[in-house]
Design goal:
It is a single chain. This protein has about 425 residues and is α/β, with parallel strands linked by helices. It has 2 domains: about 90 residues; about 300 residues, Divalent-metal-dependent TIM barrel enzymes (TIM Barrel). The chain is built from 14 helices and 12 strands. The strands form 3 sheets. The protein has an 8-stranded parallel β-barrel, surrounded by 4 helices. Strands 5-7 form a two-stranded antiparallel sheet. The radius of gyration is 22 Å and the shape is globular.
Length: about 425
């Protein structure tokens, strides 16, 4: 390993000079990276089961049965710590309301039921994000929650949504970092609805009631997460992307863009500049859709890099919040977190190292020939040398050595569950 570290150091010194020739200061790029926060979705670690026990309805949302699933909050937090130790980001942790450890009904949970989560986050310096879990519950009306035709069902979930915002605010105050409260509901129809507008009218009323109380955005920010479709809602999704975007702009609420919640040919990177001028907050859920909204583990890809290129070039730091959102129980769950974190981190660093100023100068001069050629040539710059050096500086395992650490953790911890 010592020889490898020497090679990494030498590679970095060469790369630093190459980037300098393009007008890029690699040290400044790494400094900018160090300010990025990535929110890690807790539900990858336990297959989206939560800790409610009898109050939750049985529903299998995840494929696979790899050994070592977290069975309680302490195990889930331990696994998160392990995964985040392999990532160079600053971290937040995203929690759904059914990860409460107070064994209360979902509409009755308070911040006190997340005391262990909050104390852990404060002690580790993590931020927290939050979601009301509008699914897998006895009070679901089939596939409907806030848009159920039954008033008692809608009222139950409205109360749960109101409580979630209070919890998110308390989390923000405790951690000293803004807590993003994401509202996503699965409501929709498997087949063709007779009256689309009626269900959307119910959703408007429910959202109006949930969002009625004002909170200090220093501690809590609301965002709405749309969806293309899913199993059981192939023909109609009440909370579609169009619906939530229009509602958010009119009501002054934030929007969540999940990279897996659009048609495969649509680009979230392109959508950012279209939406950002009209909303104050955007939450990016970084996923990998395969065929449809399948939430595969994030890996390095052109789409991922393009997303971080747009984030860097558009300077969206003051309004865009980053988070992962996927789940896979067919592989080691801790590894799934680490793979996604490291892929996103490398894309972010690569975007920060790109000589964007040169291709922008060409564009502003109508020199589209230079823009295209330079865009293609900069793909060959030695980004990996800077990436490995940054990991080395942060004492984070490089390459296959990260996998070795995961395998040891699997043998020493996961295998004993």
């Amino acid at each position: 390993m010592r020889d490898y570290e020497d090679i990494v150091q030498k590679n970095y010194e060469l790369a630093r000079k190459i980037f300098a020739d393009w007008g890029i200061d690699t040290e400044k790029a790494m400094e900018r990276f160090s300010e990025l926060k990535m929110s890690v979705h807790c539900w990858q670690g336990d297959d989206v089961k939560g800790f409610e026990g009898d109050d939750a309805a049985s529903q299998n949302l995840v494929t696979g049965n790899y050994p070592g699933r977290a069975r309680c909050g302490d195990e889930l937090r331990q696994d998160l710590d392990m995964a985040m130790s392999l990532s160079p980001f600053k971290h937040k942790v995203n929690i759904h309301s059914f990860y409460q450890e107070g064994k209360k009904k979902r509409k009755e949970v308070t911040a006190a039921d997340f005391t262990k989560w909050i104390d852990w986050a404060v002690g580790k310096g993590y931020g927290l994000d939050f979601n009301c879990s509008f699914f897998t519950h006895k009070m679901m009306d089939g596939n409907l929650s806030l848009t159920s035709l039954k008033k008692e069902v809608r009222d139950y979930w409205i109360e749960a949504g109101q409580g979630a915002r209070e919890i998110a605010c308390e989390m923000g105050k405790a951690t000293g970092q803004v807590c993003i409260n994401d509202i996503w509901v699965p409501d929709g129809m498997k087949d063709i609805p007779a009256d689309r507008l009626h269900f959307r009218s119910l959703l408007i009323d429910a959202l109006d009631r949930i969002l009625e109380k004002k909170y200090d955005k220093k501690y809590m920010v609301d965002v709405l997460e749309g969806k293309l479709f899913s199993i059981g809602a192939e023909c109609y999704t009440v909370g579609s992307n169009d619906f939530y975007l229009a509602y958010a702009v009119k009501k002054g609420v934030g929007i969540c863009m999940d990279t897996g919640h659009y048609h495969l040919t649509e680009s979230v990177a392109d959508k950012l500049s279209a939406v950002a001028p009209f909303v104050d907050d955007i939450l990016l859920h970084i996923s990998r859709g395969v065929r449809w909204d399948s939430d595969h583990v994030v890996i390095q890809s052109d789409e991922l890099l393009t997303l971080f290129e747009e984030l860097t070039r558009g300077d969206y730091a003051n309004k865009v919040h980053l988070g992962l959102d996927y789940f896979d129980a067919s592989i080691n769950r801790v590894a799934a977190w680490a793979i996604g974190l490291r892929a996103a981190a490398k894309a972010a660093l690569t975007a920060l190292l790109q000589p964007f100023h040169i291709i922008k100068e060409a564009e502003m001069s109508y020199d589209y020939t230079s823009r295209l050629m330079l865009t293609d040539e900069m793909k060959n710059l030695p980004y990996n040398a800077v990436w490995e050096y940054m990991l080395l500086k942060k004492n984070i395992p490089l390459g296959r050595y990260a996998l070795e650490r995961i395998k040891r953790y699997e043998k020493d911890v996961l295998a004993n569950r």
